[in-house]
């Protein structure tokens, strides 16, 4: 339950210096803010791929399951230890319930990318309120994303894919990326190839359903 992990009362109370020691200056202040958040990061495959693609960007995975979070922590520490080029210092993970505590971690306009990759489907109608993409939660995501920030979603469950796309389409603060923008974004292909869930779907020859939207600057 929630009582098993600390909940910061505001983003100012989150000490990311412990997560990113190589980005800490002499006065113990962190030099950068986290910009990417992988929500429900699972085993951390996406973070690990993004770490070397964006070596100067701080990224955090958010994961509810304790053991999975511990696994990702260890995985990142091992990569840091064995990297000869000082890589993987820019990724880390926190255990939290992202459906409740996103605004406790990030300030308004802090994030430039948010990932919701292969989230749990919650098939039954009465459980739709547990889905990580909903009109209500998109209000929170629009708040923590900066103008021009991108939200990436993908699933192998067609009905959930339709649902996430419909929520994003009807939200006033998001617009779909064009085909050209999708092709030129190097992150898009990682949604499947870098995530453990995506790899599993690919092995089984399954289909995926993607929705990638931009947080707009204002509502006209
Ligand atoms: N994104 C990863 C991937 O594509 O390989 C993992 C996908 S897995 C099917 C969904 C993950 O979301 C699980 O690891 C689960 O524990 C996590 N999760 C579910 N609800 C969550 C919540 N409210 N907050 C944080 N993580 C959550």
UniProtKB/TrEMBL annotation:
Active site (catalytic residues): 120
Family: Belongs to the class I-like SAM-binding methyltransferase superfamily. TrmB family.
NCBIfam families: tRNA (guanosine(46)-N7)-methyltransferase TrmB
GO molecular function, one term: tRNA binding
Record field: catalytic activity: guanosine(46) in tRNA + S-adenosyl-L-methionine = N(7)-methylguanosine(46) in tRNA + S-adenosyl-L-homocysteine
Matching PANTHER family: 3-DEOXY-D-MANNO-OCTULOSONIC-ACID TRANSFERASE/TRNA GUANINE-N 7 - -METHYLTRANSFERASE (PTHR23417), TRNA (GUANINE-N(7)-)-METHYLTRANSFERASE (PTHR23417:SF16)
Enzyme class per UniProt: transferase
HAMAP family: tRNA_methyltr_TrmB_euk
GO CC, any one term: nucleus
Protein name as catalogued: tRNA (guanine-N(7)-)-methyltransferase
Enzyme Commission number(s) from the entry: 2.1.1.33
Localisation: Nucleus
Pathway annotation: tRNA modification; N(7)-methylguanine-tRNA biosynthesis
């Amino acid at each position: 339950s929630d009582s098993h992990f600390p909940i910061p009362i505001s983003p100012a109370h989150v000490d990311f210096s412990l997560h990113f020691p190589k980005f800490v200056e002499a006065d113990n202040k962190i030099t950068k803010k986290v910009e990417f958040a992988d929500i429900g990061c699972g085993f951390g495959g996406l973070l690990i791929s993004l770490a070397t693609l964006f070596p100067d960007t701080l990224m955090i995975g958010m994961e509810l399951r304790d053991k999975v979070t511990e696994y990702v922590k260890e995985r990142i520490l091992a990569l840091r230890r064995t990297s000869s080029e000082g890589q993987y210092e820019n990724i880390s993970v926190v255990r939290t319930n992202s459906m409740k505590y996103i605004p406790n971690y990030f300030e308004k306009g802090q994030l430039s990318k948010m990932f919701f990759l292969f989230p749990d489907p919650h098939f039954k109608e009465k459980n739709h309120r547990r889905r990580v993409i909903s009109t209500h939660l998109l209000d929170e995501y629009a708040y923590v994303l900066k103008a021009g920030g991108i939200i990436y979603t993908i699933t192998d469950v067609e009905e959930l894919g339709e649902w996430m796309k419909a929520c994003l389409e009807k939200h006033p603060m998001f617009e779909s990326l064009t085909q050209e923008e999708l092709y030129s974004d190097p992150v898009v292909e990682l949604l499947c190839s870098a995530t453990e869930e995506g790899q599993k779907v690919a092995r089984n020859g399954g289909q995926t359903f993607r929705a990638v939207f931009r947080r707009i600057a204002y509502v006209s």
